[in-house]
Amino acid sequence: MSVNTKASDHDRLSSLHAALSEEFARQTARFKELRKAHLTVDPGEAHNQAALLAATRHSLEQITGALRRLAEGSYGRCENCGIPIPLLRLELLPHTPFCMPCQQHNG
Q: For the packed helices 46-72 and 2-38, what is the interaxial angle rounded to 10 degrees?
């Protein structure tokens, strides 16, 4: 029984790694496009463009963190308190490093 559980956990983590890697590639391409466009953006749009760049950079940081935790074997545990993060939360926010109580506390 534990072999099947471990196999399904491994499959789930492999699928997650693939999905995060694909999202990282998409966000990297988006970031490059935004940076290129930022050079020629209308001054009136500069603020919006800067916000898009910042949001994309933040997304890349979150994905990188999730991929690092997967590689280290700490994925799915809260970085603050160490308890397992509920599966539903990880399915909704696969890059989250915190459980809900710690996220709310850290703001």
A: 150
- Reported as type and span, the H/E element at residue 44 is none
For 103, other C-beta atoms within 10 Å of its C-beta total: 16
State the pLDDT at residue 4.
42
> Considering the chain, what percentage of its residues have pLDDT values greater than 70?
92
- Residues in the chain, overall count: 107
What distance in Å separates the CA atoms of residue 8 and residue 90, rounded to the nearest whole number?
16
Single pTM value for the model: 0.80
Q: Residue 107: what pLDDT?
A: 60
Q: In this structure, what token pair is assigned to residue 14?
A: 């492999």
101-105's contacts with Cβ under 8 Å and 24+ in sequence apart are 102/78, 105/80
Look up residue 81 and give its DSSP letter.
Answer: T
Q: Which of 58, 83, 88 is nearest to 98 (CA)?
A: 83
